[in-house]
Write a structure and sequence with these properties.
heterodimer; A: 121 residues; mainly beta; seven-stranded mixed sheet; B: globular
């Protein structure tokens, strides 16, 4: 059964860094683009970043470009390195699989349960 | 960035009702649009991709239509488990963007 499990969330001060992880299982990780999507408390969804299936290309939302870096590891893991965190980065962060077989995926077909990041002094 | 305008932002409906949610893009996005359902406390779930293709395992009462700039999600006969918030997403051009959501509540 395909599954995504995020970890690494927590409380962090503004300006500090945090690294999120996502463990994938039950599918061929290297065949899928992967995304991070976030949701601030009581708010809507915001796409954050995508990494191509082979890890060679990434795109970011304007709100995080230059501060966040998405990468993928060898052991079916996805990462999000978040630097210079801001209060407005407070959100649940979801790891999301790109389905449909294209370079960046055609749709978001598998979601993790999310991990909460709180940026507060 | 491409803006997606969902309407209405919320609606009240009864079990058995036909419900229609619209999503309008600020520019032509072909059929690169998906629809998601999010129940409280849960992760979103893909319902429709490529504007009108039903995701595996999703009940056939969910229907997507449209292309270009105007898209519609229709629930043909609302069920108790359908009370949730619905989002559209365009993945035509980076940055990918979501609509602001439509909350479907019980009348």
């Amino acid at each position: 059964q395909a599954q995504l499990v995020e970890s690494g969330g927590g409380v962090v001060q503004p300006g500090r860094s945090l690294r999120l992880s996502c463990a994938a299982s039950g599918f061929i990780f290297s065949s899928h683009a992967m995304n991070w999507v976030r949701q601030a408390p009581g708010k809507g969804l915001e796409w954050v970043a995508v990494i191509s299936y082979d890890g060679s290309d990434q795109y970011y939302a304007d709100s995080v470009n230059g501060r966040f870096t998405v990468s993928r590891g060898r052991s079916n893991n996805l990462y999000l390195q978040m630097n210079r965190l801001r209060v407005e980065d407070t959100a649940v962060y979801y790891c999301v699989r790109g389905g449909g077989g294209t370079y960046y995926g055609r749709y978001f077909d598998l979601w993790g349960r999310g991990t909460l990041v709180t940026v507060s002094a | 960035a491409i803006q997606l305008t969902q309407s209405p932002s919320s609606l009240s409906a009864s079990v058995g009702d036909r419900v229609t949610i619209t999503c309008r893009a600020s520019q032509d996005i072909s059929n690169d649009l998906g629809w998601f359902q999010q129940r409280p406390g849960q992760a979103p779930k893909l319902l429709i991709f490529s504007a009108s293709s039903l995701q595996n395992g999703v009940p056939s009462r969910f229907r997507g239509s449209g292309s270009g700039t105007d898209f519609t999600l229709t629930i043909t006969s609302l069920q108790p488990e359908d009370f949730a918030t619905y989002y559209c997403l365009q993945n035509y051009k980076f940055p990918w963007t979501f609509g602001h959501g439509t909350k479907v509540e019980i009348k």
